[in-house]
Fold this sequence. Notes:
The complex is a heterodimer of chains A (307) and B (336). Helices cover 43% and strands 16% of the residues of chain A. Chain A has 307 residues and is of the alpha/beta class.
Amino acid sequence: MRRIVGGWRSVDLGRYLGTIATALLITVMLPAVSAAGFTVRDQTGRSLTLPAPPRRIISLVPSVTEILFAIGAQDVLVGVTDFCDYPPEARKKQGVGGMVAPSLETIVALKPDLVVATSAGNGEAVFTQLDRLKIAVYVVNPTRLHDVFELIARLGALTGREAEATRLSAGLSARVRAVAERVASLPRPRVLYVLWPDPLIVPARGALVSELLVLAGAVSVTAEGGDGYPRYSLEAAVAGAPEVIILASHSHGQGPMVREKWERFTALPAVKAGRVYTVSGDLLHRYGPRVVDGLEQLARLIHPVRP
Amino acid sequence: MTRLLATLAALGLATAALAVAALFVGSAPVSARAVVAVLTGRGTATPVDEVVVLSLRLPRIAAALLAGGALAVAGAGFQGLTRNPLAEPSVLGVSSGAAFGVVLAQVFGLRTGLLEALGLTAFAFAGAFVAGSAVYLIAAGAGGLPVHTLVLAGVIVGIFFSSAITVLISIVDFDRLGGVIHWLLGNVAPLPPPALGVFAVVAALGFWLVLGQSRPLNLLALGEEGALQLGVDAERVKRRVFAGAALLTASAVAFVGPIGFVGLIVPHALRMTLGPDNRLLVPTAFLGGGLFLLAADTLARTLIAPAELPVGVITSFCGAPFFVYLLRSRSARIAP
């Protein structure tokens, strides 16, 4: 494979495959059932001891909800947020409100033995309140693509569905590899990814989307413009002379008007070539299994498959 | 008259110089030579340089000049109208009213096309009008409009409309209003030509309404009875100035957001040098406001490049201390 992908990209891919292996290893090592109970360490390194493997989980994270469904652990899921809209059956679970300030009353009434929360998205107050109420909280903080695989492994271990988790990860990583191999020898166009149009928010250093753009065979024009997902000046974005512009849609509205905003700049290579595309932000901004769908979609837009 | 011309010439020159300078600075690495090439149409400029200079910097400079001018004239108008030195669109809650109108319009999906820009302005004007009338009704007591009552009424109405905006944001899908919180801080964006056109026409109409009443506004400063004896139809003057100032506020809020304190700083700075004559104040405030907001916006887009600060943050940092200063020391002396 090194021969196919070549150069620095193989290092990147190699490191990434290595982390998958680590993630799978964690699966084996993670839960320690003893007489005292069931001890797990969450993604932030906090260790928590449960009397038994959790039977009633509330997910405050849409990607966690997606993963639990994908590994067939949906029966232990008793509550989800209003943003947990995938798969459609997730809507049938009891809602506990938004992500920043979910309803504590509803959470308590559901008698969860574990709440899965994220340090990026759930309000700080949620953690203190849940602690005060003596509800066990498992914190996840994914930031990179390999964290998705780690998350799948962890949730598989937590719900006793390791086999399904391993199978899911293997399928996903094969698809990631296929994308990386297809685009490896192709020229890499300059791409501007617009996470949010106004204020302009783009992926930069360390952002999942920046990583996906590289895997999809692009050079992100905003890759070095700050950390994470910074606010960015329109001027600096345009100055990157993007050859492809990718606009993230956010479930409703926004679509056509925002496109127009970019299509006004007819002198930009991307606009001249008619290469302004829309992708679903739900795929690319969530650390769930569908991120690979998002990656494949990105790769198809950046490197169209010619029949 | 010569003083007016001299001041207008000085402000005009300074504004023009800053506007040209602003074309040369920004987060995109466009060389000075490339900017000149784009502007003169000679020499070598890449298509990207053209987009940056002509589609981003130029309309943004125009929007900043228009919005600053509109807010400053609205401030001068409200100050003359209420005979109150602290009156100003954001202090009076009129900006919040206009902002509520704009958010409501966005709930209905209006954005920046020609018709949509008109609709947005209409909503903003309705909001500004309702808020302004409410402040007037709350504050107007037996003895005119006392300084503190007026400011309090403005604060109350401002809070009411800010809360109304929060309610709208809470009940409407966040995705449709996600940009609103950012916009509420005040941001000058490079407007597309149709929106810029609507902005210019509406602001010009408001400016004309206030300017036309600048002489009677001077007489109104003597008190309504005094003005009446000099043959001034006080009600008509007040209606026109109110409509003009509300239009100016509405246009600025609709296109750049509720930017605070421009209407306070600029008329007062001019009053300190030119005196209280509204005939001098109104036209110079337009240029002065444009100059001030353009300076603030140029800082906003260059200070932390490639990221940007909301321009409202900068005007508020300048304006809040100025407000305190006026409130504590000069409010009696430089009353309009």
